[in-house]
Amino acid sequence: MEQSSKVGLLSCSGECRASGTLARVATRLVRDEYRPDRAITLCLPLFLAGGEEERAFAREQPTLTIDGCAKQCARIATERLSGPVAGSLVVEAEMDLPQSLSRREPSGDDLQWARRLAERIAATLDGVLRNSAPGQAEG
């Protein structure tokens, strides 16, 4: 497999849970601040609606899914429409979130939760890139 220089991030689009909002905000943080040279975001609604560029990227390049809850809509859609994912995180399984977490744009303490999740996503992304480097043994 050719080494990838970018990893796709496909996050939850669910707004009914704060964990979905957290997934989206953390994904943007990774793309914009933590790994801007290594991460691109894919749009789940466009992916589901037939966006061939989104689907082709996920087929050809490593893609991580970041789901808010155990339904894992992003992971399941990616695997059905493009193939296996390089990794997946489920926010509610990864973090013991406070009940007070906002479903709107996080700020203050809520933003710290998004930053913690962004650090986990960035570490997972780094591992994917390390494992796709030439000469590395497969999984």
Largest sheet: 4 strands, parallel
Mass-distribution shape: globular
Strand order of the largest sheet: 2-1-3-4
SS-based class: alpha/beta
Radius of gyration: 14 Å
Low-confidence stretches: 135-139
Distance between the termini: 13 Å
- Percent helix, as a range, is 40-55%
Q: Can you count the helices?
A: 6
Instruction: Output mean pLDDT.
Output: 89
Sequence of secondary-structure elements: EHEHHEHEHH
Count of extended strands: 4
Question: Percent of residues in beta strands?
Answer: 5-15%
Structural account:
The chain contains six helices and four strands, in the order E-H-E-H-H-E-H-E-H-H. With 139 residues, it is of the alpha/beta class. Strand 3, helix 4 and strand 4 (87-90) form a beta-alpha-beta unit. Helix 1 (18-34) crosses helix 6. It starts with 6 loop residues before the first strand and ends in an 8-residue tail after the last helix. Residues 135-139 have low confidence and may be disordered.
Q: Helix and strand layout, with pairings?
A:
Layout: E1 7-11, H1 18-34, E2 39-42, H2 44-49, H3 52-60, E3 63-67, H4 73-81, E4 87-90, H5 91-94, H6 109-131
Parallel strand pairs: 1-2, 1-3, 3-4
Helix pairs in contact: 1-6
Tags for this entry?
13% strand; alpha/beta; 4 strands; single chain; disordered C terminus
How would you sum up this structure in a few lines?
The protein has 139 residues and is an alpha/beta fold. It has helices at residues 18-34, 44-49, 52-60, 73-81, 91-94, 109-131, and strands at residues 7-11, 39-42, 63-67, 87-90.
